[in-house]
Fold each of these.
Amino acid sequence: AVARTLGFDVAVEARDLALEHLYTYESIGDVQDDPGGRAGRIVAGVVADLDGLDAEIESASEHWSVARMPVIDRNVLRIGLYELQNHPETPTGVIVAEAVRMARTYSTEKSGSFVNGVLATLARIVRET
């Protein structure tokens, strides 16, 4: 699959495709088409629990409401938190690293470290060991 909505034309994996669909969802208020497969499951899971995910993200992001976050950052965090909660088979480090990669690729220069900090906090809460 190829991501084009975000202004990039690159081969993508499921998380990137999910991010593209969530970006479109926020822009027009609807999921245009189901990307199918793993990306479709991520999109459906995030959309179904949007309020719950946002509440947890806000509680972990000091002084930042989800509404004030750049649209890419908040959707990267939603995907990461959804995976932390619903995919225990995926290592925490992989989820965080992929979220940071997407933030650095598609958002601002500072987004990678912001996403890393918030998601690391959420990972400690969600996956207490």
Amino acid sequence: MKVEALVWLGVRTDKFEETVRLYRSVMGLRPYHEDAASARFRLENGTEIHVYGPQDEFHEFFGSAPVTGFLVDDVEQARSEMEAAGVEFIGEIQRDETSCWNHFTGPDGNIYEIISLRE
């Protein structure tokens, strides 16, 4: 497994509007997607920041700590190696048009994610 970069940050918060305002108004980021439950920002280098509010029930498993996504060369291989080392994953590998990802629980109890780009 090769970890290449940090490429994703997810935050679930009860202070949704305030957090979105921080990213938009203070930090100058523009959301590429926004609805009542989430706002998603993309930095110039491609790193994404997703903010999920209380209306977003799907990401409740995040807890209150930020979730960091590590770019790996191959999600399936990385997951196999990590499972062999005792890491517990949450659900199956997810896919969209551009990437594959899978959340896992770290030894600290926080949620993390591995991501690879699809070719």
Amino acid sequence: MKLSSKLGIVLASVLIAACAPRNETQYHSISAALNTPEAKEVLNPKVKLYFGTAAPGKVVKENVVSNKKTNTANKTDEKSCQWAFLSAVKQFQDRALREGATKVGNLVSYYQKNTYKSTTQYECHAGNLMSGVALKGDIVK
């Protein structure tokens, strides 16, 4: 086989591998995400969050789901995951305020309807173009 043919095969293989879809499951720190400057800008400190545990009070809406995605352009996986996570948390806080509630409890990761329960980490799926976080929780007064 000629060198140019071998080179063409290698180049085609590299291009195919680079364009192959990626859906990598990652776990990141909840506290690290909540303590970022971005979190301080977008989250409401008046709406308390309870990850993996029930919030005290009366549940007004059960099993609410938020599924947020963000692009990965010019971001590390961790940064894009944090942004998707904060967007999902903010959606919960906004829903709580609309319902006249002050807490969100039983927050768990819920990617593709698979529950990952943790008080310290959330699940994120990072791809070539997008990262996504899904959360499920209860709105509590």
Amino acid sequence: MKTFKAQEIMSSEVATCRAEDSESKAAQLMWERDCGIIPVVDASEHVVGLVTDRDLCMGAYTSGKCLSELPVAHSMSSAAYSCGAGDSIEDVLGEMTEHKLHRVPIVDGEKRLVGVISMNDIVRHVAKLKDGGDRKRLESSVVQAMAAICEPREAPHSLVPQKAAQSAAHPSQSRVAASSA
């Protein structure tokens, strides 16, 4: 049985942004690269966080501001779990399972970003395997990881600000208020 490494499967052409960049820039990168996550890096390419398309939407919604008005730091997750390029796919799946992640940054020995591996990358890799033993072993691991990742989380406490809550309760008033603001 072969041990597959993260570096064999990861995407290495990864768009990144900085914490001080606008959320609009992060959204543009996601659109251009057809991805749902952007690693946030510092000047040395160390991962300091991640921002997803959902993070951007919820950040704008809960603040009542446009993406262009918000820095990525406003909505990014600073808990950036990562794996090493030499880690096995089983180790990557373990990290995904433990932290309920669909994607994980891959870093080198200096903890600098070298790629991202997604559940999609792993599934496509497993689907291409010719060796039945390797495929069967990894299929089982992928299914277990997906089951854990898809397990519902506890509902968060209401983070909706007063302005957003009023807009949701009175949509016609919010359009008027927004156009006059």
